[in-house]
Amino acid sequence: MNAIARAWDSDIAYAFRHSPTAVISAIVALVCIVGAVAAPVLAPYNPFDLASLDLMDAFNPPAFLDEGTLAHPFGTDDQGRDVLSAIMYGARMSLFVGVSATAFALLLGVLLGLMAGYAGGTVDAVLMRIADVQLTFPNILIALLVDGVARAALPRDLHDQIAVYVVIFAIGISDWPRFARTVRGSAMVERNKEYVLAARVIGIGPARIMLTHVLPNVLGPLLVLATLNLGLAIISEATLSFLGVGLPQTQPSLGTLIRIGNDFLFSGEWWITVFPGVALIAMVLSVNLLGDWLRDALNPRLR
Length: 303
Known about the structure:
- There is one protein chain.
- The protein is mainly α.
- It has one domain: MetI-like (MetI-like fold).
- The chain is built from 14 helices and no strands.
- The longest helix is centred in the middle third of the chain and has 37 residues.
- Keywords: Cell membrane, Membrane, Transmembrane, Transmembrane helix, Transport.
- This is ABC transporter permease.
- One of its GO terms (cellular component) is plasma membrane.
- It holds the Pfam family BPD_transp_1.
- It is a multi-pass membrane protein.
């Protein structure tokens, strides 16, 4: 209880309580996360259970329109699937890919950034030139290239089975330079300080020095960068799925739902694509606003 009380009275908690934008963003993000994670429990239907689908229910409008019913508050799609349930399941997949890709980029970027900043010399030059070259290309192009190579190298059945992990790798490998450059700068500052030199003298290995002395000094900026990068990863996955090179229709995300609904947008069934699009915007915008607030809250110059 004392730890909870101290956390509640901390500067960050005080800044959070007095920031309406942060509070509203946190509530929206929490609703999106709970709805996505608990989709099998909270969703009214299982939209991917073929036995429960009825084509007679296809293209039902939302409940607030004529001929709409409360049984399907956001309407149904061309297969008779409940759009609200599809959004919850799709958000679950989008969130999983976004978090996994961000975690992969974070781990790879931290590892390479520590190596470059601590070792310096040739190691630093090679790693940072690779990062500089990669940063000259948009992330989505790198992700498309990785996904295209995977599709060409793997049999179609095998690719469909591991499509989720291919997308996670494609997005993560395109985002690591941001984390690496952040960690590298901190490592270059810390490696020449007296406590690091003293640790070398008493025989502590480079790996332990980097993990126990250098890395803790950059956790704040890394947390902010990871929060902001999560929104970008979700957008990247949605873009890939919208282009038809992301997740398969058997494992749809919000991007897949938007692509499917786009085929019916101009025939009057706008809700099939608009509601997944609104859900995607709400999820990404709330995460980005939280990241912006966290960046300001951890900046001592703005306190």
